[in-house]
Write a structure and sequence with these properties.
- The structure is a homodimer of 277-residue chains.
- Chain A has 277 residues and is of the alpha/beta class.
- The first copy, chain A, is 44% helix and 16% strand.
- Chain A is built from ten helices and nine strands.
- In chain A, the strands form two sheets. Chain A has a four-stranded parallel beta sheet with strand order 2-1-3-4, sandwiched between helices. A four-stranded parallel beta sheet of chain A has the order 6-5-7-8, sandwiched between helices.
- In chain A, helix 2 (48-65) runs parallel beside helix 3 and helix 6 crosses helix 10 (259-269).
- The longest helix of chain A has 18 residues, at 48-65.
- The interface between A and B is large, with 85 and 86 residues.
- Strand 9 (274-276) of chain A pairs antiparallel with strand 2 of chain B.
Chain lengths: 277, 277
């Protein structure tokens, strides 16, 4: 992207955090590969004054760029949105079209209350997420064995294959209590799962990784060690995959997958594919 | 929500993880407070066969509910999207309208490549996120003092005020290297910041919390302890806020804010409000 020719400014405007608009704009704009987008967040635009100040920033940028910026808006209040829409910009009203469609479909009016979508600071689901994060941190890397019966899923795999970030993502995004437990050479010598895990067999999900990539990752931590050697990584990965196959544990490779993709696959496999709003 | 009368099924359909569609649908649907939405994720729908199977699940649900489900789709391929659209459902094409608008504005065609939006498994930005998560974990709760000069931000505050989940969220969502460091009664007795933090003053951001809420949180960890007593919590919070004011550290209260809201405010305050796609 560094040497691409076309640049374009994007504003993310929201009466709340702007995370929805940012996720959405990123997904849509990544379909235009020849353009380098510089995104500026303008969160918490929840009053006419703030909207006017935001509109001024957008105007200024339009003059500086000599091109109207793209604006992705999740502003709910039409009055506030209108003040941004009138600036020199390509205004994308993310909610507008869909809210109207939904109002017709559901036969009711939306609340259109500013910031409503993210003010879940004290909701039950929110507290579940925070508890899940604490659970995943406490049960990282097999460090705390009590409480594994409360895990929704226990990730297993060799050291540095991606268990920790995946556990944390599952907890943070989906309130899933994800523990993780390392598979180590002693387990392979014994040819069996760690005893601690035996009661929780059905909760196990395996992660694996290409030995070459694993060696890279381990070398960042402990350069030049036996632990990071390609020979050691090859051995451990082969042993771990054999063990998981033998024990009938579902598993996947993390090598070319993002934590979002890995987490989604896990949720799918273990049947955690439903949510209630 | 438990006793609400209206229920409606929602399908999240994507050729990738569905996280964009899920975030978006959650934000839009939370504006209809009288309805309880049950969301079913159908990720990785990237072939005609999978689309047909998904369409069948939607058809079945339409019969079971005797109502067409809502479908939020981020399917990029029009052929695959068409197979879902033809099922009995209220089809919301999240990308369709905007992609066309953007194609006209930018004067170019989108790539419309399936799954493109999330196949960032090996990108630079993705690696930065994973490194930031590792950094935040290693610098949680002041446990590792070396490397603080590489932090983008260092969160400070009393024990259990929300520093850890916020640090992890900043790392995971924004690739921000967020360390955190506790303020403890010894610091308040001395009336000064921990020595370790003095070189990094300008990176400090404070979190505080209502003493009543703090006592609740601490009681979950150590029920009935002095540490969890309302008296102790009141004292620590008052001392911490006094210290932060005295030292000119920007801070906010986490009591009624979600980690998304807290993180967005921090990014805003410390000037980390830009992203490049």
């Amino acid at each position: 992207m560094a040497d691409s020719l076309i640049e374009r400014t994007v504003f993310i405007v929201s009466d709340s955090t702007g995370i929805t608009a940012e996720t959405f704009s990123h997904a849509v704009l990544s379909q235009f590969e020849e353009v380098r987008f510089e995104a500026i967040r303008l969160p918490f635009i929840d009053s006419a004054d703030k909207a006017d100040a935001a509109a001024q920033r957008i105007e200024q940028k339009a003059r500086d760029d000599a091109l109207p910026p793209l604006v992705f808006s999740t502003l709910v209040d039409p009055e506030i949105a209108g003040r941004i829409r009138n600036a020199s910009c390509i205004f994308m009203d993310l909610f507008g079209a869909f809210v109207q469609h939904l109002e017709e479909t559901l036969g009711m009016k939306s609340s259109r209350s500013v910031g409503r979508t993210h003010t879940n600071g004290l909701s039950k689901q929110y507290n579940k997420r925070i508890e899940a994060i604490n659970f995943s941190l406490a049960h990282d890397d097999g460090q705390f064995v009590q409480g594994l019966q409360q895990a929704d899923v226990i990730l297993v795999g060799v050291s540095r294959c991606g268990k920790t970030p995946t556990s944390l993502y599952l907890a943070m995004q989906y309130a899933v209590r994800a523990a993780n437990y390392p598979l180590i050479p002693e387990d392979f010598d014994r040819g069996a799962l760690p005893h601690t895990l035996l009661p929780y067999r059905r909760k196990l999900f395996g992660l694996s990784i290409q030995p070459e990539r694993l060696a890279e990752v381990r070398n960042e931590r402990r350069p030049g060690s036996v632990y990071a050697s390609l020979h050691q990584c090859r051995q451990e990965v082969a042993d771990a995959e054999r063990l998981m196959r033998m024990e009938g544990i579902p598993w996947l490779s993390t090598t070319t997958r993002s934590i979002e993709e890995i987490s989604t696959k896990i949720m799918d496999e273990v049947g955690l594919d439903r949510l209630t709003y």
